[in-house]
Write a structure and sequence with these properties.
The protein is α+β, with helices and mostly antiparallel strands. Helices cover about 40% and strands about 20% of the residues. Strands 1-2-3 form a 3-stranded mixed sheet. The protein is elongated, with a radius of gyration of 17 Å. The relative contact order is 0.21.
C-alpha cells in the first residue's frame, strides 16, 4: 500500500492518499493571498479533504488476490 498514485502506476497494489493536484492548488491560493499582502500568520491552517484510492488489478492478479467489488466501486481509479 502506498500514499501516492505513481506507485500504483508503476506496479504497486494500491494507494490511498491526498489528491496532490488539489493540494498544489490550495498552496497556490495561499501564495496568492500572501503576495496580495496578507500575513502568513493570519492564514488558517487547512487539512486535506480530498483523498484518492487507486487499485492495480494486474498486480492483485499476480499476487493471487481477489479485490472485493465494493472496494473496486469505491476506487477513484482501477488499473487493469
Amino acid at each position: 500500500m502506498y500514499f501516492q498514485r505513481f506507485f500504483v502506476n508503476d506496479g504497486g497494489l494500491l494507494s490511498y492518499g491526498i489528491d496532490s493536484v488539489h493540494e498544489h492548488r490550495l498552496a497556490a491560493s495561499y501564495v496568492d493571498r500572501v503576495l496580495k499582502g496578507e500575513k502568513p500568520a493570519d492564514l488558517p491552517v487547512q487539512a486535506s479533504i480530498k483523498y484518492e484510492l487507486r487499485i492495480n488489478l494486474k498486480t492483485a492478479k499476480t499476487l493471487g488476490l481477489d479485490v472485493p467489488p465494493t472496494l473496486l466501486a469505491r476506487a477513484d481509479e482501477v488499473i487493469e
